[in-house]
């Protein structure tokens, strides 16, 4: 196995390029999508699919979903190179959701460059993003590791379950974002994270368990690890935004108070609204609802979060979740090497650019 | 079985309401999507998913994909009521693509009312449309007709194949729409129809064949029937737009020359560019490329199509395709009742409102 996790990146990109090459021709189309009834237009499919997909992938991203998959496969005692094509499943799915989310949010920037729909148009970007929901699922049909039918069916059923819950999570998040009032509590927030971000993590873990034929309690344990880690990661994001903003108070940069400006209902906001005096809670709500905030107003909101102990609360919850995640896989007999890699993985995720 | 095809509509809507009820509560969410890790927000999911989905369905649509599925099931000698939940699969998929297509095209109107993204916002509409790609696929996992594992796997593999090709077709269509020049020929156009519209038809037919365990040659035959019918239907649409426009020349209504105005590369346009004198072909290309056309220019383009014999050509191709479709299932031993229904179906499709 590779020395460090990042060493896997070139092999993963090569596996993705086997599924969807940088340069599309009629032979590839016929071999992957089957014979045309009349005639494909490789140039059109190049522009509609391969070019936007590789534009996004070439901007970076650590391929950590693919890497975590390979760590699990190796932890289960199997050769990860044999299962490399399957590692592309969560990776392409994830990048597809990024394109679609950016259209939904009207995002302008992604990984330091214009969001895909700003370059290729909303129609091309969206269709490419949606194609990336189905493209990787065809890998199971192509069956590169010659899996028996029951594992392929189990994989499809798992994917349908998790991809449905992903859309529930995204639906809740969007809905709350469009509401002015903060109507939900901490459990609903955590559920949204568990669905929206956690389910892709669960796909990584469960896919590794299913295709290597692990017992169902092992599949459950790694799924829980991945879900809890993803939720902790999401909360970490919320904390970073607030801490980064408080750290630069006085010299308000362009990232200053992003979440407050967007009116995001983060764990910190929900906690602060519950714990603050009524007049301060009302004031926080007011600033969140406003479409335009001055830097002073943002600072005021951040201070309400701080005074309510919401940063500390969120940090405790994140640590708790990370501990629960570790506990979930504690009973599994992973070797020291895998355990080390799962720890390395946690650090790897934290230095993130997605 | 019902006397006429339309009699199935209430039962189909009831089956859809079992999958995704008009009113969402925690019990439904738990039973369909599994236990939450923390707590779902039924109100949020109501607004994000059930309300937009039922808004679209309640605007009409003949549920003909579901009905055709049931006709095939009965034609294969099985009881359609037993397989009713599976009829929702192509129907919900189709309505999902409508929502997504409307976002991609920036459509304003759908079935006589504002497109969903104009009512619920692009984010909600898009997420609901995408959720409708996965929601129905979960039916196979829930397995209402107690199908053996091999049929469920075959159904998933078929769906992944066809849904991938759907996105190829949409990708080609979008790409050509964004190009000024007409670069493609008739075979590429027919392939686009076969992928974009035909694959959903193929899903209807193949799903009916797979879940009732038909031999593979029967599955291939009904798939061909459905694909060819869908392509004929698409060409019929192109012809209707031109004939309707020519018919009202002199009193230009609001639908006058829609396809020319949008610069659509229809079968008629591709044919006319190939068959017209060079200067008239150039003129047609010019009018198509222009962002603003006068009524006179549109009429001029329509006359170029007419003079090139493109309307007659398209009509012949459509009739040819319809004949090929009938021939495809000629060898199958459907009873007279099914044959009558498949004929009724063709008429039913023609009086369409989608």
From TrEMBL, chains A, B:
Entry's transmembrane regions: none
PROSITE patterns the UniProt entry points to: POLYPRENYL_SYNTHASE_1
Stored CDD domains: Trans_IPPS_HT
One GO term (biological process): isoprenoid biosynthetic process
Classification via InterPro entries: Isoprenoid_synthase_dom_sf, Polyprenyl_synt, Polyprenyl_synt_CS
Pfam family, one: polyprenyl_synt
Molecular function terms, GO-annotated: metal ion binding; prenyltransferase activity
Alphabetically ordered keywords of this record: Magnesium, Metal-binding, Transferase
Family statement drawn from the similarity comment of this UniProt entry: Belongs to the FPP/GGPP synthase family.
Name under which the protein is recorded: Polyprenyl synthetase family protein
Provenance organism: Natrinema halophilum
